[in-house]
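PROTOCOL LOG
Step 1. Enter all chains and additional molecules of the complex.
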Amino acid sequence: MKAVSIYSHGGPEVLCYEEIPRPRHKAGEVLVRVHAAGVNPIDWKIREGQLHTLLHHTFPLVLGWDVSGVVEKVGPDTKRLRIGDEVFSKPDITRDGAYAEFIVIKESEVALKPVSIDHVHAAALPLAGLTAWQALFETAGLEAGQRILIHAAAGGVGNIAVQLAKWKGAHVIGTSSAKNHDFLRRLGVDQVVDHETERFETVVAPVDVVLDTIGGDTQTRSLKVLKPGASLSRSSTRLPPSSRPPTRCGRASFSPSQTPASWRNSPV
Ligand SMILES: NC(=O)c1ccc[n+]([C@@H]2O[C@H](COP(=O)([O-])OP(=O)(O)OC[C@H]3O[C@@H](n4cnc5c(N)ncnc54)[C@H](OP(=O)(O)O)[C@@H]3O)[C@@H](O)[C@H]2O)c1
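Step 2. Run joint prediction.
Step 3. Record the structure below.
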């Protein structure tokens, strides 16, 4: 099958578009034909080696941990899924990802794709959606009627967090640059703050929850807008940029013109 692998850490030039063996599924796993793969910040952070001490990947490694596709084969003891099911998933991040024609995933990590969205939109949902859900409801315990400040509200995690918080019945304040203000208002944000021209701590009244995917100074200043006993929910994996020099992969190098159409159209 075709896949995009890396054989070393480094910049985009270490991505190798190549032919590799189709992965084999075991008991409790399914083989999924990839229709769309989402691209997230964690992909380039892993590619650069920023999370190596945490995840201990070995090479070659296929990136991409957001996927939508169709079940091609099922293992002997799979219970819920059948061949031909349309599914989406955030696969195990310690294993090979979805920049490939096929991926093996544990059945427990796969859900049926909603019929109302296509594969490209479905592949944008699992990682950012789970992050937003866990931050809002499992970490912060957001409830109806509470006030929440969502930083980077137009970003991948932020825009889903906005929609979940509005669905819950919260009063939502979102930060973004001016180009995204209309987008945030269309999503239902009650107060939009321009992080490039305003100090949010001077214009936002006390809140019950802050969702911070930015970190650093934004996190420190966020403490000033929290009510006593309120929650700061952090979902940032931001780290300093790698100082490692780029490594050549030495194989057929990857270029956008070689990318399958379904990947070029995948959400970023
Ligand atoms: N995507 C995921 O599934 C996921 C999961 C777990 C953790 N994370 C982590 O969460 C962080 C954000 O990820 P993402 O996917 O949401 O990124 P993203 O889609 O690239 O969005 C980032 C947004 O940050 C905004 N921004 C930049 N500087 C800002 C500031 N000072 N104040 C407020 N907003 C600012 C920008 O919005 P404007 O253009 O409006 O300025 C940009 O759209 C990353 O560190 C990522 O590793 C992401």
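Step 4. Note key features.
Confidence is low (pLDDT under 50) at residues 236-268.
Residues 128-234 form a domain with the Rossmann fold fold (CATH 3.40.50.720).
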